[in-house]
Amino acid sequence: MLDSQNSCQSTYKEIEIGPANSFKNLPCSVAIANEDYFLTQDDAGRHYLLSAVCPHMWGAIAIEDNCFICPDHGWKFNLTEGICINGPRSQMYSINVVNKRGLLFAQFPYR
Ligand code: FES
Known about the structure:
Blueprint: H1 4-7, E1 12-19, E2 28-32, E3 35-41, E4 47-51, E5 62-64, E6 67-69, E7 76-77, E8 94-100, E9 103-109
FE2/S2 (inorganic) cluster binds next to loops.
């Protein structure tokens, strides 16, 4: 049985990223709450917010040669979902993005 007090509580905090049509060239860098991310979009139009912190050992990920790359150990990630393409089964940290009437919001989970 569901606990009625807890069933309505959000498990994430939404932060506005901006109007979807204001991001013309994706992926692009965005800063949210003093943290660096990349906003990306797949062929179906779905947006992704990927942390610029490497999931290996927290290097600073950059865009280079049509992929995301971490210069510390050379892991590369694809430009949509941030899936590692040259190393272990790994993926960039991803924050869910929702589009509400043209405005993009990131849904940061509470911890
Ligand atoms: S810290 Fe990024 S590949 Fe090792």
